[in-house]
Amino acid sequence: MSRQPYAQLIAIKQWADRGLYDAVGKNFDQLTHEERSVMLRILDHMHVVDKIFQHHLQGLSHTFQAPRSERPAELEALERDAREVDDWYVGYVNDLKESDVEEPIDFTFTSGKPARMRRGEIILHVCLHGTYHRGNAGAVLQLKGLTPSRDSITDFLEDPGVR
């Protein structure tokens, strides 16, 4: 299978994640304490899952016991770390050989259950997982009457800053 669709999906994820952090950063002070807590938990969960699967792709162990941190970091730290991991995924997929997309990787979920996924399936999972939770974060903003970030593939393709 070609790595091209994975490269485009990861680029969209990177763009959408940055848009989300921008929208959240601009509106964070307008959220209640409880809403800020929910938002940080959503962002932390997205980031931890990205890091867990980054480790799996690298063949490295990790210390995560759950798909979230015990205590989420502050917004600025989460944004900085998420940008770093998103940048890693973009570089990783761009350097991935076509033959590596189908390579299976054995790993263990944080629940202790053994698993096997192909590299392409992991990349797809990271992209779809992020999309789902960006929607959760956008809903938190919308419930406050705030505008979430643009998040669709068509928005990505129409964004002049992407090209």
UniProtKB/TrEMBL annotation:
Top-level taxon of the source organism: Bacteria
Gene3D superfamilies (alphabetical): dinb family like domain
Residues given in the record as a divalent metal cation binding sites: 45, 129, 133
The keyword Metal-binding appears for this protein: yes
Record bears the keyword Zinc: no
UniProt keywords, alphabetically: Metal-binding
InterPro entries tied to this protein: DinB, DinB/YfiT-like
GO molecular function per UniProt: metal ion binding
Family of the protein in this entry: Belongs to the DinB family.
Protein name (record): Damage-inducible protein DinB
Organism of provenance: Trinickia dinghuensis
Lineage: Bacteria, Pseudomonadati, Pseudomonadota, Betaproteobacteria, Burkholderiales
